[in-house]
Amino acid sequence: MMKRSEYCGKFSKALVGRQVAACGWVQAKRDMGGVIFLDLRDREGVLQVVVNQERVSPEDFAAAERVRAESVLEAAGLLALREEETYNPAIATGEVELRAERLSLLSEAQALPFAPEDAGDVREELRLKYRYLDLRRGEMVENLNFRHRLVSAAQRFLDGEGFLQVETPMLTKSTPEGARDYLVPSRVHRGAFYALPQSPQIFKQLLMVGGIDRYYQVARCFRDEDLRADRQPEFTQVDMEMSFVEQEDVLEHLEKLFRFLVRETVGTELKPFPRLTWQEAMDVYGSDKPDLRFGLPIVELTGFALHCGFGVFRKAAEEGGVVRAINIPGGAGLTRSEIEFLTERAMGYGAKGMAWIALRPDGELYSVLTKYFTEEERRELLELCGAKAGDFILFCADKLPTVRRTLGGLRLDIAQLLKLPREGYCFLFVTDFPEFEYSEEEGRYLAMHHPFTMPYEEDIPFLLTQPERVRAQAYDVVLNGVELGSGSIRIHRQEVQQKMFEALGFSQEKIQEQFGFLVEAFRYGVPPHGGFAFGLDRLAMLLLGAPSLREVIAFPKLKDASCPLTSTPAPAEQGQLALLGIGLDGEARTGREQRARAPLENTAGLAKLSLEAGERAEMEQALEEMLRFAGRLAQIDTGDVAPTAHVLPVQNVFRRDERGGGLSAEEVSGNAPAWVEGCFLVPQVIEGE
Question: Tell me, what DSSP letter sits at residue 649?
């Protein structure tokens, strides 16, 4: 094997005239008869290799003739300039070519399940099953390259700010942090379990107790929760903690960090980060992670509603609810179907409907609502909403959480419907979150972030008496309407931590069981400290404009947290379970049985069939046999079999498409068992009760 001179995509005119060697995957082949052009690709790009039968041995030329796409090839020869008329400006090496003198087929590829360049048109499950093929796409290579540069930039910045990179344990203790834990059974301590960390929260606070006053880590985290486009069960976050800081110190540090990261990776200089309190964000945008790249603020109308003539608004306000609106500049042109779409969306968010007023271009009001308002009320309403001719106002009157959720969701729907500009990167700090949120399910207050978040000093007296009014020194960083990460100033005073546990309803036994080691550590001197963590995968996705986290992670999971590449999760061997002291109940099924059940449910659902228990068992067995047969077919080596469109010889498959005469009613009904009043008679096969 020859040593390659350079990456395929890095060859340039500077090397013209030299003997060089290149290695890579065959992306394309063009046989011109006596001359074969091969596009050789690696992670850096594509190089054209010219195989002329007059310059290579017969054996090497024959190898080039039969080489398959995605085979791994090594080529050596002279790097030369292309003929000017054959320049290819679409690739970086478009002015040069390698004129092969020797070829070596390092690894021959078999028939591919899909071509890497066509992966964008392949269903995602198949792409992830053959992820190593998908990774050969230039887009995926660039995504991983970008992610690498992002990590490198974060490490450079934090190193320069005096942070120490410290690893924390992966096998740790289960603590309540908002999501379900992934548990790991212990063989040595039978019946006991580790938990994979949802975050390094506990350990980074212990590092502060230990005097490591500036810590960071590119940490792997695990959360067993429902997936979506910006969520994975295992993910990476850049985690950091600082001692002897206040909230303002952390926010200034974070703004410097993100400005540096964006400048280094995408070359954009960010504007100063705006700030909103949680209350402001929820009232003005209906969300604690608003997208500020467009306007459409929410307008408060509850005071107006208390004295207006429209009973629905007045009743909502009198019963303790709120009335709010969004004015859409130029929205009077919304079509009836678009208004109905927004109304359906509003009801989907929990509203009872959506009232609206359109202002025609001449200023005339168009709405059924206008008859409920006096002329003076109409003027006041338009003034409060800032509406003018050509605008469209939509309203929501309900309980506060419903109005926030409805108008916050509609604001995003309107931006998408009207294709409002949403380019660029808009970072935002959201601060002063509530310390607690009430759980109807559990009948008590829960920590909105975690139990170690420091309240504002002036709110500490209300921890046990009015927990709903306590504000936390907690903050989020939001980018383009997506939460990048969260942080807070931590509790370092024992008496405040004890009140916090009491407010959450923790008994001394529960405190000791879940946080005993941390409480113990805090008895020996704790500095004031605070920190933050942001999702590395999520930031990479947003900066690249990728549609999903799966586009910036090398080996991601599907939406059901499964990995088609490795067929995980999978059943464990009985011996492994016995060694761990774990038994499965009688309802547990093997992975194969679970996979057989899924197509049965899908098939029955699509066919609108209801299967009895006996039929279900019979159908599951039939589907299992089909899956086994398909598995045997998949194991057959068809690599040397030429693909065919038809199994049988093709004969008479084309006919002239000529329109014939129609059939008479008698001809149509000729095979019917009975014909009554011009219709087929269908015997009754379902007996009524």
Answer: P
Closest to 79 in 3D by CA, of 152, 149, 19, 10: 19
Closest to 322 in 3D by CA, of 198, 227, 407, 414: 407
Measured N-to-C along each axis, helices 336-348 and 400-417 cross at an angle, to the nearest 10 degrees, of 140
Question: Would you give the DSSP letter of residue 659?
Answer: -
Phi, psi at residue 180, to the nearest 5°?
-75, 145
- The string of DSSP codes covering 466-512 is -GGGPBBSEEEEEETTEEEEEEEEBP--HHHHHHHHHHTT--HHHHH
pLDDT value at 591 more than 90: no
100 forms beta bridges with: 77
Query: What is the pTM for the complete model shown?
Result: 0.82
Q: Which two tokens stand for residue 390?
A: 């050509």
Per the DSSP assignment, residues forming a β-bridge with 444 are 439
624-651 mean pLDDT: 61
The terminus-to-terminus CA distance of the chain in angstroms comes to 81
DSSP letter for 641, please. Answer: S
Residue type at 603 in one-letter notation:
T
Work out whether the CA dihedral 300, 302, 305, 307 comes out positive or negative.
negative
Q: How far is CA 205 from CA 11, 128, 303, 488, 535, in A?
A: 50, 38, 46, 12, 19
Average the pLDDT over 136-159 and give the result.
97
pLDDT in tens, 251-280: 999 999 999 999 999 999 999 999 999 999
Return the sign of the alpha-carbon dihedral for residues 626, 631, 637, 643. positive
Confidence band for 472, pLDDT divided at 50, 70 and 90 = very high
Residue 241 burial (CB < 10 Å; 0-12/13-18/19+)? buried
- Within its chain, how far is the Cα of 480 from the centroid? 14
Determine contact, residues 522/484, Cβ cutoff 8 Å. no
> Looking at the chain, how many residues does it have?
689
- Tell me: pLDDT of 150 over 60: yes
Beta partners for 183?
195
- CB atoms closer than 10 angstroms to residue 340: 12
Residue bearing tokens 């990995």: 563
Q: Is residue 462's pLDDT more than 80? A: yes
Report pLDDT digits (tens) over 62-100. Answer: 999 999 999 999 999 999 999 999 999 999 999 999 999
| CB distance 675 to 681 below 8 Å | yes
Across residues 535-554, what is the average pLDDT? 95
In this prediction, residue 606 carries a pLDDT of 63
What's the rounded Cα separation, in Å, for the pair 609 and 174?
44
Whether a cis peptide bond, with omega within 30° of 0, leads into 643 is no
Average pLDDT over residues 581-600: 59
Do 680 and 669 touch, CB atoms closer than 8 A? Answer: yes
Q: Which two tokens stand for residue 366?
A: 């168009």
Q: Taken in order 100, 104, 110, 114, is the CA torsion positive or negative?
A: negative
Is residue 88 within 8 Å of residue 48, measured between CB atoms? yes
408 three-class SS: helix
What value does the mean pLDDT take over residues 181-194?
93
User: Under DSSP, is residue 585 helix (H, G, I), strand (E, B) or coil?
Assistant: coil
- What is the rounded distance in angstroms from the CA atom of residue 379 to the CA atom of residue 369? 13
Identify which of 95, 97, 90, 93 has the alpha carbon closest to the alpha carbon of residue 10.
93
